[in-house]
Write a structure and sequence with these properties.
This protein is an alpha/beta fold. The chain has two domains: 109 residues, translation initiation factor eif-2b, domain 1 (Four Helix Bundle (Hemerythrin (Met), subunit A), Up-down Bundle); 197 residues, Rossmann fold, CATH 3.40.50.10470. It has twelve helices and ten strands. Helix 7 links the parallel strand 2 and strand 3. The longest helix is centred in the N-terminal third of the chain and has 30 residues. The structure holds ribulose-1,5-diphosphate. Ribulose-1,5-diphosphate binds next to helix 2, helix 6 and strand 6.
Length: 330
């Protein structure tokens, strides 16, 4: 069944799809905000119908971009709670609870980004040169916190083609009064000899500690590995993917070729194929540590974070796979 959703919900979904709203943390917060707006805009009178309507809104939001697990994790934060309580709820209780859980998630997410800054800044020393890629609020939180604590740092910000999110990073850092240099992505190895540490964000962390982040991250990690430069990933725990525990692969979004070349180029050279993957995977061997709001972990400890944070969903997923073994002796 198709439901009529408030205009603002459709605008948020379109904003995520078109990347007007971007970055894994922001996407997650925008999605739960959309769920809250949807709940407040419900015009029916039946609690079961309300649940179906909220599922409809959730599916619309989940279909916007496939890679950042923060999106399904944020939607699940609200919807799994709703699903567990729906039988006992009146309609008013259901609406109020969605509002409460959405606000709760947003508050947690903002606090987590701040905590990552406080925990991670200890890894930066005065005089260090830091390299970052794309535009990650979590990575920026680490860099900006170090600067605000009086550390004298310099930053190389990669342009991040084709969408140039590196320019947003450079502008934010310059506004903070941080010495920042914007460099083409292809110049990373050229500058790596000067760099003390790399800090990037994450869209998804897999159970084996592999990190999915903006395209180019794995190449930077490779160059850092070669130059023996440490690589840190700043990621909230809701960027860890429970689906990867049962072997699901992370879908890498491929965006339109028109983000790389203009329409005229495509028309004039129909024989040229243009590909535009938006993310890549950095293996855990190239990552020194992941900075979460709950502490700094080795990428190989990702499974422990998943077991702690997502025990409920892991159990459900295992049951579906019928992986529950019975050790009782008959
Ligand atoms: C953004 C990107 C960011 C992560 C982490 O990609 O790869 O590094 O999402 O960001 P896009 P944050 O611009 O395609 O969304 O730390 O802000 O969640």
């Amino acid at each position: 069944m198709n439901y009529k959703l408030p205009k603002e919900v459709l605008e948020i979904a379109e904003g995520i799809r078109s990347m007007k709203i971007r970055g894994a943390g922001r996407i997650a917060r925008a999605a739960v905000k959309a769920l809250k707006i949807a709940a407040l805009g419900y015009r029916g009178s039946n609690v079961k119908d309300f649940y179906d309507y909220m599922m409809y809104a959730s599916k619309l939001l989940l279909a916007t971009r496939p890679t950042a697990v923060s999106l399904p994790n944020a939607v699940a934060y609200v919807m799994s709670r709703l699903s567990r309580n729906i039988e006992a709820f009146s309609l008013n209780e259901a609406v109020d609870s969605v509002v409460k859980w959405s606000d709760e998630f947003i508050e947690y997410s903002l606090k987590a980004t701040q905590l990552i800054g406080e925990i991670g800044e200890g890894r930066i020393k005065s005089g260090n040169i830091v390299l970052t890629h794309c535009n990650s609020s979590a990575a920026l939180s680490v860099i900006i916190t170090a600067h605000r604590k009086g550390k004298d740092i310099r930053v190389y910000a990669c342009e991040t083609r084709p969408k140039f999110q590196g320019k947003i990073t450079a502008k934010t850092l310059a506004k903070e009064g941080i010495d920042v240099t914007l460099i083409p992505d292809s110049a990373v190895r050229f500058f790596m000899k000067d760099v003390d540490l790399v800090i990037v964000g994450a869209d998804t962390v897999a159970a084996n500690g592999a990190v999915v982040n903006k395209i180019g991250t794995s190449m930077i990690a490779l160059a850092a590995h070669e130059a023996r430069v440490r690589v840190f990933v700043a990621a909230e725990t809701y960027k860890f993917s429970p689906a990867t525990v049962i072997g699901e692969l992370v879908t890498i979004e491929e965006r339109p070729p028109t983000e790389v070349v203009d329409k005229d180029f495509l028309r004039r050279y129909p024989g040229i194929k243009v590909r535009n993957p938006a993310f890549d995977v950095t293996p855990p061997e190239y990552i020194d540590a992941i900075i979460t709001e709950k502490g700094v972990i080795s990428p190989h400890a990702a499974i422990l974070v998943l077991r702690e944070e997502f025990a409920w969903t892991l159990e459900e997923r295992m049951k579906k796979l019928k992986l529950t073994l019975n050790y009782e002796i008959e």
